[in-house]
Amino acid sequence: MNNIDLYVHSKEAQQRLYKRTLWIVILSQTFGGAGLAAGITVGALLAQQMLGSSSVAGLPTALFTLGSALAAFLVGHFSQIYGRRLGLSFGFIAGGIGAIGVVIAANIHNIILLFLSLFVYGAGTSTNLQARYAGTDLAGPKQRAKAVSIAMVATTLGAVAGPNLVTPTGAFAKSIGMPELTGPFLLAAVAYLLAGISFFLFLRPDPLIVAKAIEIEKEKVGQKDFGDAKEISSPSTSNRMGIFVGGTVLILSHTIMVAIMTMTPVHMQGAGCGLGVIGMVIGLHVAAMYLPSLVTGIIVDRYGRTIMAVASGIVLALSGVLAAYTPGDAILSLSIALILLGLGWNFGLISGTAIIIDSTTVHNRAKVQGSVDVLVALAGSAGGLFSGIIVANSSYAMLSFLGTYFALLFIPLLLWRRIKQGKKQ
What we know:
Helices cover 80% and strands 0% of the residues. It is mostly helical. It has one domain: Growth Hormone, Chain: A, CATH 1.20.1250.20. The model is unreliable at 224-233 (pLDDT under 50).
């Protein structure tokens, strides 16, 4: 009996591996969150500084989100074939290399290298999101949203610390003769590399490979005779409607969040706010993205995916309305708007992810997850790119109102799903 067989035939071993996997995800996501926050906070400001125009301020977000789309595809497919360990390690290490490239580009003032490096840096962004799936491979149907939420909570420490380290890391960069805005990317390089190394060294045995082996064994002996695997059962066929609805919730919530978040630092800087204040507001936003996750996961598992997906649309719509009427120097109101933006994204991410997990099988889950995340990243890239164009040619308020409009589309989408299925999800 090999190492995998020990887990396949033992319920206790499966639960031990499930819990161990969650701890590894917590460790790696703590590092990954810090890397994620760097580009969010100063990417737009760095491009604006180097290119001298606010109309291209959304370009960095578009580039690293586009890079995250390619990485999402590669990580998803690598994970399906070789397991989560190699897929996630590859993505985080690539993100770290991209962050190093951004630092070099800023120091030599090379725009082409900056764009290329931001594209590669995006691998860390998508891998940070795909890591949320690692804890679900051995989770039971009533544990899946909670498992996703644990990964999200783990991201909180690094993600909240990242924006608030803008000033000290900027001071460090200046002290060694580098541009101030490269400081957060120095942090991102170290953080992403540590996240990738953690997955590579410790995610053994691979939970997805074990889950596949369990499913194969169940198919051989029959579900009823394979008692140890009952708690981690999967659907026998994929649910295309579920994949479509879950993917749409993820795409819309992510696009709205990226678009408004990307232009908020520019909106604030235009009103005279300094980097410290901008970092604080973005830090609160990122905290709202991740910190409520554990409670969100419990609610999603207990009361249903649809309820929380509708709540996501409502909260995102409220955020857009408030942001639209808030001047760039109204710190309290803008903080509340960004907190609501993060909270709505959180609701959408966890409920949409749970819908997709419920709608796939272990034999295609990682591939589908990667493909959906490609669309999420591409939509986010478009949101980041067009947000700068919209603000430059109209206003931050118009951008926020557009976010509200798309957020309200959640309601008819989920009503359509409820009518089609005729039962609570």
